Amino acid sequence: MRLTWPDVSPGRFYEANDVLALALACKREFWSSGASRDAQKWSLDITDVSGLLVSAVKGNCFRGAEWCLQKPGGPWAACDVYVVVQRKWNEAAHKDMDKAFYLKCAISKAGSMLLSGSNHPTGS
To answer: Is pLDDT above 50 for 86?
Structure first.
């Protein structure tokens, strides 16, 4: 049997207001193994990623939709993709610099939690 995946890139899976409400409430978990690695590598916690997502949704930074694999052989989730730019102090450069973050999220089946598929700087 061959599975056919719908083309999802042009539109959203989830209403922006639903994503925003869950992000504001920090009702989020690092769902994929990649999201957990991203969080550790970039020293991000749930509050940090929720804040980035709030900025992304409020800033209309939606970039498309993609399928996300939880882990090899694991379940898939339909994710909305956002890219948001955050201005932060860069110690090495001794100045504020922009850093763009790539965020993928899905809403749980129950509608009560955001599932993080990716949360890392773009290009990393």
So the answer is: yes
